[in-house]
Design a protein that fits this description.
The protein is mainly beta and about 120 residues long. Helices cover about 0% and strands about 60% of the residues. It has no helices and eleven strands. The radius of gyration is 13 Å and the shape is globular. It starts with a strand and ends with a strand.
Amino acid sequence: QVQLVESGGGLVQAGGSLRLSCVASGTIFNINRMGWYRQAPGKQRDMVAIITRGGSTSYANSVKGRFTISRDNAPNTVYLQMNSLKPEDTAVYFCAADNWNNQRAWGQGTQVTVSS
C-alpha cells in the first residue's frame, strides 16, 4: 500500500502563489503516476495536474500556464507550484498515486483558499 501526506495549503490573496508537496511512502516502487486533484464545495473532484514516472505532464485547461507539477523520484515527492491564483482555485487539493495496475491511493487533502 501507498500512503500520501500533503502539505502547503493555506490562505492567499488573488494573484499570489502557493506550493503544495506530497510525500509518498509504503509500496512506492510500484507507483507509475502521481497527480493533484481538487474538489470545491458541492462539486466533483477534478484532475488538476498529473506527472508520470518518466516525467510526462498533463494539466487541466483552467490551470495551464499558472500551475507546474514536478516530482523527485527519490524521495518520492510530488510538488504543485501554483502561481497567479484565482478565487476559483479555492478547493481541497488531494494528492493521488496510481500504480501499474491502475489502483489509486489518495492523500487526506489540503485546503487552498484564495481571497479576492
